[in-house]
Amino acid sequence: MDWTCSEHHLDDGIKLIPLSTLHTHGLINAFTNDPNSVRIAMPWLNSTLSIEFQIRSFIVDVTSGPNSIHYHHWVLVNQNSEEIVGLIGFDVVRFRTIERKSLSRGVHWNLGYWIAPNFRRRGLASKSIDIMINIASKSNVDVVQLSAAPENLGGLITIRSAVERHEGIISDFGVEMIEENEGNEVPYEAYWILTGE
């Protein structure tokens, strides 16, 4: 079974559905209401370009682009309203450089997420992360990396909690230098959860 295409139900009336181009409009609507935290979750977004154009391109890239086999994303959908209230996913491509191969053990996925403001503080991120860790383990992944920007206090609390639940460790890097769209490098806290046997 390909666990990266699986659908999951949380116990709060929220379901995780694999991202597709059918979610483009709903995801753009959700992101438009909270551009600041979206830019923290997706530091590669260019502030001089339309967020709508960039999200459309992102969805095409990760669902059907030439490297789409290296991306696995799900939208969080409110089952009552069908409103998209979050996004969570793995990025494999980031770790495919020579330097990464020499520093990383085995198959290494980066996990990122975003939850809409009205749905935060309900445990949705934590529950979704737990599901993603299980998916990674069943997909023969050795390491899942979680990173958060230093000003993202909610994100730091969430990933530190996940690291504790899953007996993770500080990554070999300790911090991950993330280049933001303006070219600035920001030190993100970085942790590893070892999912391999």
Task: Please outline the helices and strands.
Elements: E1 8-9, E2 14-18, H1 24-32, H2 35-41, H3 51-64, E3 71-78, E4 84-91, H4 98-103, E5 108-115, H5 124-138, E6 143-148, H6 153-165, E7 169-179, E8 185-194
Parallel strand pairs: 5-6
Antiparallel strand pairs: 1-2, 2-3, 3-4, 4-5, 6-8, 7-8
Q: What's a quick, concise take on this entry?
A:
With 197 residues, this protein is an alpha+beta fold.
Q: Your description of this structure?
A:
This protein has helices at residues 24-32, 35-41, 51-64, 98-103, 124-138, 153-165; strands at residues 8-9, 14-18, 71-78, 84-91, 108-115, 143-148, 169-179, 185-194. The chain has 197 residues and is α+β, with helices and mostly antiparallel strands. An 8-stranded mixed β-sheet has the order 1-2-3-4-5-6-8-7, with helices on both faces. A hairpin with a 4-residue loop joins strand 1 (8-9) and strand 2 (14-18). Residues 93-100 have low confidence and may be disordered.
For the structure shown, list the relevant keywords:
single chain; 197 residues; alpha+beta; Aminopeptidase; 8-stranded mixed beta sheet; 8 strands; 32% helix; 29% strand
Largest sheet: 8 strands, mixed
What is the succession of H and E elements?
EEHHHEEHEHEHEE
Structural class: alpha+beta
Share in β-strands: 25-35%
Q: What is the arithmetic mean of pLDDT? A: 82
Structurally, how many domains make up the residues?
Answer: 1
Radius of gyration: 16 Å
- Classified by CATH, the class is Alpha Beta
What's the arrangement of strands in the largest beta sheet?
Answer: 1-2-3-4-5-6-8-7
Ends distance: 19 Å
- In CATH terms, the superfamily is Gcn5-related N-acetyltransferase (GNAT)
CATH architecture: 3-Layer(aba) Sandwich
Summed up, the helix count is 6
Q: Provide the helix percentage.
A: 25-40%
